[in-house]
Amino acid sequence: MIRFGPSGNSESFYKEGHKSSVEMPAWLCEKGLDAYEYQCNRGVNISKDMAQKIGEEAQKSNIFLSIHAPYYINMASPEEEKRINSKRYIIECMTVAKWMGARRIVVHTGSYSKVDKKWALETSARLFDEVLREADNLGLGSIMICPEVLGKNNQIGSLEEIIGICKANERLSPTIDFAHIHARGQGSLNSAEDFERVINTLENSLGVERVRELHCHFSRVEFTKGGEKKHWNIDDTQFGPEFEYLAEVILKKGMKPVIICESRANMAEDALKLKKIYNQIAKGMQNEKSTCD
């Protein structure tokens, strides 16, 4: 089953009088959504009690939970203390995921702007292995770490780099942010064939089954020569990429991904727009098949 949901809480959630993320699962369910990426991007600052309450509400409302780890994680920092802290932040995030009943945490691997690229990739892969071993010792082995494809050219996060990190350990699974791929490629996703090329690359490297339930981020994006500049809303059609193309590929391949919308301020509303686009294309393809039969 394909799932749609927001990255964090839309402005409308608060405008409607809601104050706590505990209320998000029921609110999303009423809207017709079934996924939620809780944001720890500015730090892991949630109590066990609060995390458990969100998890209980998510279970009641059939909401698939994931967590976004802090943005400032850098597994390839030239400073050892920062690398050690980065591992700790991931473990803290996995602990919250266990409390909450979330299955995946999304992680920004870091940057190679101050270090050799080869060293950065090797160090990052080694640190992920260390994190997974520590997670096992702490009873957190059920939580999947999902390194994210990133949008800036100086970040560890090209599609090939994230595949390489995940290929080194089958307990790592990529988060494919299509806005970031589009930005990093200077507007590279312009057709269903472009999106299918990305999915084929993943399948050929990681295997079809490992890619079937892919964790995805989607929004429109503005970019410069350095890559990603700013995420935009689905109605901001002067920016790409177009979700219709991805929906065609998902349906063609029979995938069941989680699609997390990262639009600015309107994440839930835009997640619903993505779901509507998907359902329209699914219906059209079904009608076309029926006509052919």
UniProtKB/TrEMBL annotation:
Where does the Xylose isomerase-like TIM barrel domain start and stop, copy by copy? 30-266
Q: Which GO terms describe its biological process?
A: base-excision repair
Q: Name one Pfam family in it.
A: AP_endonuc_2
| Keyword set includes Hydrolase | yes
Q: What InterPro entries does the database record attribute to this sequence?
A: AP_endonuc_2, Xyl_isomerase-like_sf, Xyl_isomerase-like_TIM-brl
- Say yes or no: keyword Hydrolase present: yes
Q: Extract the Gene3D superfamilies matched here.
A: Divalent-metal-dependent TIM barrel enzymes
Keywords assigned: Endonuclease, Hydrolase, Nuclease
Q: Which GO terms describe its molecular function?
A: DNA binding; DNA-(apurinic or apyrimidinic site) endonuclease activity; phosphoric diester hydrolase activity; zinc ion binding
Q: Which domain of life is it from?
A: Bacteria
Name assigned to this protein: Endonuclease IV
Q: Which organism is it from?
A: Acetivibrio mesophilus
